[in-house]
Design a protein that fits this description.
60% helix, elongated, 6 helices, mainly alpha, single chain, 0% strand
Length: 131
């Protein structure tokens, strides 16, 4: 039996549906960024196969896992800085805390900095998941 073909464009479209927003107009799908689907996108979305839906749901689960991991890394980052802010005067800033970090904590700070400050954390995580 031949393997069903999964269309990447349909999977991407499926993962971009805002399933919870715009409940005032449930007849029209919207993108996660708030844009309504075009007629062509809506028609394409109606052709999603069970395999494509499963692939899209798997991607959405991966994204949720990545976001949880990023949130945990952000908390580690904040905790790391707070540890040093506790040693400094009240009006101190991040460079003051960084200046007194141990080498080990500074290495952790440097490792976490690009993750917690990335403009698009999901994109960063997807590109650096193996790091």
């Amino acid at each position: 039996m031949p393997q069903p073909s999964i269309r990447p464009d349909v999977v991407v479209l499926f993962t971009d549906v805002d399933w919870y927003g715009h409940l005032d107009d449930p007849t029209r799908p919207y993108h996660r960024d708030g844009r309504p689907f075009t007629i062509a996108e809506h028609l394409l979305l109606t052709t999603v196969t069970p395999e494509e839906e499963a692939a899209g749901l798997a991607q959405l689960r991966r994204e949720a896992d990545w976001l949880r991991e990023i949130d945990a890394k952000r908390q580690v980052f904040v905790d790391l800085l707070l540890k040093y802010f506790a040693m400094l005067p009240e009006d101190s800033v991040v460079p003051d805390a960084v200046a007194i970090m141990t080498d080990e904590d500074y290495a952790e700070y440097e490792r976490l900095l690009p993750i917690v400050t990335a403009e698009d954390t999901l994109e960063y995580w997807a590109e650096h998941a193996e790091d």
